[in-house]
Amino acid sequence: MSATNWPSIISELAELEIITDAVQLSKLSLDYYHFSPILSKKLNNKRANLVVRPVNEVEVLKIAQTCVKYQVPLTVRGAGTGNYGQCIPLEGGVVLDTTKMNQIRSLEPGLACVEAGVKMAAFDKKAREIGWELRMAPSTYRTATIGGFIGGGSAGMGSITYGQLRDRGNLQAVRVVTLEDEPRILELRGDDVQKVNHAYGTNGIITELEIPLAPAYPWVELIVIFDQFMRAARFGQALGDSDGIVKKLITIQAWPIPSYLTALEDYLPQGKHAALLMISQYDLEPFQNLVKEYGGEITYQKTATEATKGSSLLEFTWNHTTLHARSIDPNLTYLQTFYFTLERVEQMYDYFGEEAMIHLEFLRVGGKAIPAGLQLIRFTTEERLNEIIRYHEEQGAGIANPHTYILEDGGRKVIDPEQLAFKEKVDPYGLMNPGKMRAWLERAVSV
């Protein structure tokens, strides 16, 4: 990027908030890519030349226009809580930080319209005033933005009821800014939202979203411990299958994973396997009967009111489990796996032992509760990590590989022709988050 006329670019964007300080540029160029020793080597030195923080769509259009004029790469960023380098600029250029675009445009029962930079927890606080909340959220809920979650996330708490973000109905509409010679604002509705849903910002700057909401229950937070891991896993499946019990979170952690959650050590005895849960206050009696049926012991229980104070159990689940474990042992990394069946969970538990410590998150896929994994891996070499991945896939598990920043190589493993066609239309110069979409890279080679 040495030939780029940065003084002219800064001059054209002078009325906007611009960040050029080296320390801030470094901070706002990175995410939690260091969870992966593979990505750490590839992404550690990637930095933006400039960060711009627009406050509205008009300013986004100005940034888009300037990047096209000077043929400068543009990478969109929310709070930077992703794990795969989704918002890390591979080729420098401009990072567009959406966090100042944080207005709730409308909020009504069942539906909301928000700007991309609205923080999830802040939104829920407002939505619960009228009895509603977000359908799902990641463990980075306190700081993550809604636009960032749509662009780079896939599931989280609430997925046991509502599935994944890509499931039809979980995103109603989006407004995006293009990077054409004359940037435009487009509105995508219905199935058309999939053109930019979980696309890492490679084919449109999401500025506004229309999202469906869920009824807000008083969520009780609980920890249940078990002597045997598979008993805990079967309990998780039974809870997921219990249609009459309303739940938001079903996390199962094999020992020694609970030993890494030091803030909860009083509730996680040595050698015990744990379930971390969010259950509707109204369903506690049938829930307690299920715990009894599976021989579990409740060691921790917070009412919905108590759960609003201090750290939520959510912050010990999903990828926060990985965060806590790595803070104690930085040699640990992780995988993301769809086991689909408990038989496959048991097979992997017996086969790998503590080399791949099993952490389950239950979610709905195709209308059924299934066990997915965020296993903690004792990392030795990249070759061994690839062997572990290959064994899982050979045994019928689906791996959403968190050790790649390429969009298609992570979870879906296939090129999405709809997303590619949309990028060809709205980003003809390939300036948006370049290097992340395999479909575009292969197209560039073949053209």
UniProtKB/TrEMBL annotation:
All copies of domain FAD-binding PCMH-type, residue ranges: 43-216
One BP term from GO: lactate catabolic process
InterPro entries reported in the protein's UniProt record: FAD-bd_PCMH, FAD-bd_PCMH-like_sf, FAD-bd_PCMH_sub2, Oxid_FAD_bind_N
GO MF term list: D-lactate dehydrogenase (cytochrome) activity; D-lactate dehydrogenase (NAD+) activity; FAD binding
Entry coiled-coil feature ranges: none
Organism superkingdom: Bacteria
Name assigned to this protein: FAD linked oxidase domain protein
Source organism of the structure: Gloeothece verrucosa (strain PCC 7822)
